[in-house]
Write a structure and sequence with these properties.
Length: 335
């Protein structure tokens, strides 16, 4: 046992889970009706008025816009130099964030199994995975097709912005929409993700495309962007909103980070980052962990109401598991 590892890991909460939040899961959608002002106020405070995952990504996007990514002036002309620069920045961000989280949680074991959903560690010696190693397989798909397609979408939109083919704004020209755009982008991404995700679970597409991502029943940071190239194309197409809605490069870069390195943060396999036994940063959600365990449920995320509206919400209860397994059996009967 290393000095970094807690002296004792907490006792598992059940045979199925090492840890889970209070069950059944409550409705934490910001769109639930009737509206609850206090709940919405806490949501704004937690996500945007303290050092949250989203605030960190906006700050990182601003830093990248200022120091790392090429300017729009440079992007006016298609040239290998600045395109490679964008790819290198994106590659570096994925390695730093996904790799850093993997090192902290799974190599250094700095948090042990405290707040870890699944009992298991990443798989090794299993031929289900490329290189017979879950982490190496996930790195291959994330850093290969994932970073490449993220970069291609980003480069194309930067070129369109630079040449005036899509609407743009600045903080000075439209400060209200500039701030609102940052708040709305994750909500748009959640909306887009739900419907793309439902498409990916059509049995034929699931078998030939989405099953690659779902090999990750026990997820880790490198699982978030580990997808089939067709799934990358559909998932990253969320960025096309910048071709329709006026935005700034910081919005685009925030969106890129949210979809790429941000997926590593939400797939850590842990609910929160603990510092001195206090929850300091929200990471993964049990809501999505249930999707990776039981497949045909919780296609969206907690902020959007779609799973509840369309009967695909699993609240973590035994009844929820029974209903989900019956749905899965019916959907995949003939493939």
């Amino acid at each position: 046992m290393t000095d970094a590892q807690p002296a004792t890991d907490p006792e598992p909460m059940s045979r199925e889970w090492n840890y889970h939040p209070d069950l059944p899961l409550a409705d934490s959608s910001i769109f639930k009706w009737p509206p609850e002002p206090r709940f919405l106020g806490r949501w704004v405070w937690r996500n945007w008025l303290m050092m949250s995952e989203r605030v960190m990504m906006v700050l990182l996007a601003t830093l990248c816009w200022w120091l790392l990514y090429p300017s729009l002036e440079t992007a006016k002309t298609v040239a290998p130099g600045w395109i490679i620069q964008v790819w290198l920045v994106n590659l570096g961000l994925m390695v730093a964030i996904a790799g850093g989280l993997h090192w902290f949680f799974y190599m250094r074991r700095a948090q042990g199994k405290a707040l870890k959903f699944d009992h298991r560690e990443p798989a090794r010696g299993n031929r289900l995975w490329n290189f017979s190693d879950q982490v190496h397989d996930n790195m291959f798909w994330s850093l290969g097709s994932g970073v490449a397609q993220l970069t291609l979408f980003q480069v194309a939109i930067m070129w369109l912005m630079a040449n005036g083919y899509v609407p743009t704004i600045t903080l000075a020209s439209n400060p209200v929409w500039f701030i609102a755009g940052l708040v709305l982008l994750p909500i748009w991404s959640a909306f887009h993700f739900y419907w793309v995700h439902r498409l990916l679970h059509v049995p034929f597409i699931y078998k030939h495309v989405h099953a690659l991502h779902h090999r990750n029943v026990n997820i880790g940071p490198w699982s978030g962007l580990s997808m089939h190239p067709v799934e990358h194309l559909l998932y990253i197409s969320s960025l096309l909103i910048h071709c329709v809605i006026a935005s700034h490069p910081i919005h685009l870069f925030f969106h890129v980070i949210y979809l790429g390195p941000g997926a590593a943060m939400t797939h850590t396999g842990y609910e929160d980052l603990l510092i001195k036994d206090k929850r300091k940063l929200a990471l993964g959600t049990f809501y999505h962990q249930l999707h990776h365990r039981y497949y045909e449920c919780n296609y969206g995320n907690q902020e959007m109401p779609w799973d509840r509206w369309f009967g695909t919400f699993h609240n973590g209860s035994e009844e929820g598991t029974r209903v989900t397994r019956a749905r899965k059996k019916k959907m995949h009967r003939n493939i």
